[in-house]
Design goal:
By secondary structure, the chain is α/β, with parallel strands linked by helices. The protein is about 20% helix and about 35% strand. It binds adenosine-5'-triphosphate and magnesium ion. Adenosine-5'-triphosphate binds next to helix 1 and helix 2.
Length: about 150
């Protein structure tokens, strides 16, 4: 099953996207990228395997980052430099907070330096684990595998 439902929420407004497969996910990531700028934070929630890392991979590809984004579940945080400046951003910071218990643990990783930084676009998987570590202005993205 390759279908996913992605719901975006910002400032109380919602938008829902039905994604049929990885190809559509790539198109979705490329389109969303046009709306992003340095300092943006994307908070990705949703069950295990719902496609948060797969989306981040497509976003990274859209930024022309050569290094493949692997699931940072064991690494917790990866930072990828862009080949050139994009809407004020120079890098993508990918955080997987699945194994973290609090925002305090993110500090230990040195993530504060990146989250909300004007030259960084940050993607956080499992944001509910690290509440308070990023602004309320973050773009909330919920990933769902539709039940038939
Ligand atoms: N349309 C789609 N969107 C996203 N992922 C898809 C889609 N179709 C298939 N997949 C597959 O589903 C799997 C999603 O796994 P992924 O690691 O991205 O989930 P995750 O939400 O990051 O999980 P975790 O919470 O464990 O980090 C991948 O193998 C991906 O290739
Ligand atoms: Mg993941």
């Amino acid at each position: 099953m390759n279908k996913r439902i992605i719901t975006l929420k910002k400032y109380g407004a919602y938008a829902r996207f039905h994604i049929e497969d990885l190809k559509e996910l790539a198109v979705f990531a490329r389109e969303l990228l046009k709306q992003l700028k340095g300092g943006d934070v994307l908070a990705l929630s949703g069950e295990l395997g719902s496609g948060k890392t797969a989306f981040t991979k497509e976003l990274a590809k859209a930024f022309c980052i050569q290094k493949i984004v692997t699931s940072p579940t064991f690494v917790l945080m990866n930072v990828y430099a862009f080949s050139k400046k994009y809407h004020g951003a120079l890098r993508l910071c990918h955080i997987d907070a699945y194994r973290l218990k609090s925002a305090k643990e993110l500090e230990v990783l040195g993530a504060e330096e990146y989250i909300g930084d004007s030259a960084t676009i940050t993607v956080i998987e499992w944001p509910e684990r690290v509440k308070g570590s990023f602004s309320k202005d973050a773009l909330r993205m919920n990933f769902k595998i539709p039940k038939k």
